[in-house]
């Protein structure tokens, strides 16, 4: 690397790090290592940032599976090159009573929890990202702070992590939670905490990135508008500038079947899921799921990335869904949407959408719902069964538009209303938790060269799909929905073994 280039990029980096410090951050003078070396992973500079917990005492009330952020410690950084950080928290843990308390502290970056070498969503079921673990208490003592006491205790509690962050904006926090649920829920305090962040390395050739999980998609990173405004201000952008805050996570490359999708749930979404799940469970329980016909559409496309072509599908719930469609529109179409549905009395016909076309309300009504009502329903349901029939689809925009709802109202069919279906719930939709994955699995065993062949194979697999399998998938439906209710609306595993 040319020394001049290096010095120049270093200057830019410094400029950013200086600017991003709010006035409550004490910025110590960066210690610059004068001797610069030109070999890889050399330490080129150090800079040091400290922040104090504010207010000084923070009480964590009782049990929670998710981490809350300790107030006052948030620090933001932006840089244009990868930076290796040493991040350290030191505070005092304080329990005033003789009850059992458990406390966990952990580094959070961009709202994700950092576990030694990976980022994991701050969700109640995050232990699923660790092979063999069945609960969070088994993973949360690794790499963060774990404090347990049965008597009044004051003790120093601290931990440090080394983490390499890609270019972009980063929000650093310390998360805290207390457990276990089954032993009661007693308060514990963290007081006088200090967060110190040390940038210890900068090197354009550095290849020390911590692998991020595939679930790290931009929509999974929840940042409030206020945080975005603060970051913009900190780096000298106008609050209302349209310039987008760019996060550094890379787009996942794995196909959906190998990616565990997790949709970050806001607490209000989780609460909606909890409430609506109970209601839906009552509709599904005692074999009443047999009255349902559940339908969905999915994108199937040919993906030539791995030498031999693979069939992929992408769900509406996928954050990359719109991007896929944009790509389809602007380049040669490589895929199409497929609509289908299943019930205890059999499956609907397949409805293929023209390659590259996304379903809108008109299309949905005219090309999907009308043929569904005039052909599939009479074929699958006798008149007597038809009166009890409940039509299910998720809350995709074309499903819940005024036009579509008016059409469904006029058609006199019973249907799951938008306000009854749970937000972000592929784990509660049979097509999502089983059927799409099954079809894709079958297709990927075969060589498929073109969209026409893909259609033929889909038709073949659909026809071949056993009703006994569909019955098993549907029989799991009430159970899953009940589990969601029991899990307070948080996600249950997407692909339960059937
Ligand atoms: C920090 O900002 C506040 C409000 O903007 C100001 O009143 C205070 O003097 C500043 N403190 C320092 C140390 O600059
Ligand atoms: C559809 O029917 C429901 C009641 O079943 C009603 O609340 C809703 O306003 C109707 N919507 C439209 C667009 O007709």
TrEMBL record:
Claim: Signal is one of the keywords in the record: yes
InterPro entries hit by this protein: RNaseH_sf
Record carries keyword NAD: no
Keywords assigned by UniProt, alphabetized: Signal
Signal peptide limits: 1-22
The protein's name in its UniProt record: Transposase
Origin superkingdom: Eukaryota
A GO term for molecular function: nucleic acid binding
Organism per entry: Rotaria magnacalcarata
């Amino acid at each position: 690397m040319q020394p001049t280039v290096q010095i120049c990029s270093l200057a830019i980096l410094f400029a950013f790090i200086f600017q991003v410090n709010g006035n409550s951050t004490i910025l110590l003078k960066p210690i610059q290592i004068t001797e610069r070396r030109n070999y890889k992973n050399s330490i080129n500079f150090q800079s040091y940032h400290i922040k104090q917990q504010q207010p000084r005492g923070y009480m964590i009330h009782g049990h929670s599976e998710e981490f809350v952020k300790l107030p006052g410690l948030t620090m933001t950084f932006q840089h244009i090159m990868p930076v290796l950080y040493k991040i350290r928290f030191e505070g005092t843990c304080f329990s005033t009573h003789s009850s059992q308390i458990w406390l966990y502290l952990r580094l959070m970056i961009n709202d994700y929890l950092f576990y030694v070498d990976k980022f994991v969503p701050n969700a109640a079921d995050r232990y699923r990202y660790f092979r063999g673990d069945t609960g969070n208490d088994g993973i949360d003592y690794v790499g963060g702070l774990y404090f347990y006491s049965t008597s009044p205790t004051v003790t120093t509690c601290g931990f440090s992590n080394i983490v390499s962050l890609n270019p972009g904006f980063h929000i650093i926090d310390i998360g805290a939670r207390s457990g276990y649920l089954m032993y009661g829920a007693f308060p514990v305090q963290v007081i006088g905490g200090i967060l110190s962040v040390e940038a210890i390395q900068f090197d354009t050739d550095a290849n020390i990135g911590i692998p991020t999980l595939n679930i790290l998609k931009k929509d999974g990173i929840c940042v409030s508008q206020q945080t975005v405004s603060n970051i913009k201000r900190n780096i000298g952008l106008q609050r209302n500038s349209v310039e987008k805050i760019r996060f550094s996570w890379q787009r996942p490359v794995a196909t959906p079947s190998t990616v565990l999708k997790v949709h970050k749930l806001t607490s209000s979404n989780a609460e909606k899921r909890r409430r609506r799940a109970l209601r839906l469970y009552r509709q599904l329980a005692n074999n009443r799921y047999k009255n349902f016909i559940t339908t969905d559409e999915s994108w199937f496309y040919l993906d030539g990335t791995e030498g031999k072509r693979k069939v992929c599908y992408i769900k509406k719930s996928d954050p990359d869904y719109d991007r896929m469609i944009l790509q389809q529109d602007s380049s040669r179409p490589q895929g199409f949407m497929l609509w289908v549905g299943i019930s205890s009395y059999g499956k609907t016909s397949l409805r293929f959408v023209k390659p590259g076309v996304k379903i809108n309300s008109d299309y949905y009504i005219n090309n999907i719902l009308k043929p569904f009502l005039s052909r599939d329903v009479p074929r699958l349901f006798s008149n007597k069964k038809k009166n009890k029939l409940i039509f299910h689809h998720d809350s995709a925009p074309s499903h819940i538009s005024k036009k579509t709802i008016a059409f469904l109202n006029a058609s006199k069919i019973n249907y799951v209303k938008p306000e009854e279906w749970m937000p972000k719930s592929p784990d509660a939709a049979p097509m999502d938790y089983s059927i799409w994955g099954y079809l894709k699995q079958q297709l990927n065993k075969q060589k498929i060269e073109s969209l026409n062949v893909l259609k033929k194979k889909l038709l073949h697999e659909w026809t071949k799909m056993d009703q006994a399998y569909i019955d098993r998938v549907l029989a799991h439906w009430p159970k899953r929905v009940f589990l969601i209710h029991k899990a307070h609306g948080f996600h249950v595993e997407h692909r339960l073994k059937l």
